[in-house]
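User: structure tokens for GxxExxY protein, please.
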Amino acid sequence: MTKKEITQLSYEIIGYAIKVHKKLGPGLLEKIYEECLKYELEKNGHNVKQQINVEIDYYDLELSNPLRLDLLVNDCIIVELKTVEKFHPIDEAKLLTYMKLLSVPQGLLINFNTTNITKSYKPLINEYFSKLADD
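Assistant: Done. Predicted tokens:
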């Protein structure tokens, strides 16, 4: 994928999140928004993996509690959903770590506990994004 395609997909994801938010409003559990956003993405032809394990490779140590990310869209954008008053630095750090561990170029933090998703979501990119072709 190119930078342009990744950016376009992220706009589409935010659009579907806005659609879900307009229908349901704030105040529900994160899991409900996750299911509805997954539905919208799949209905519109996107490949979505939900609650997938993020393995941590630490020599020969097997960790019993693997990390789980919310949604992976088209194997190129990780979507982490929140229903919080505001994002915390750990939310960004966690998403950046998922992106690094899975070699994914972009991540989106989306907070459904808001009156306006477009003012509260946070896109993140990493070195994998910078290595992509522009278009």
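User: Anything notable?

Assistant: The helical segments are 3-24, 30-43, 89-102, 117-120, 127-130.
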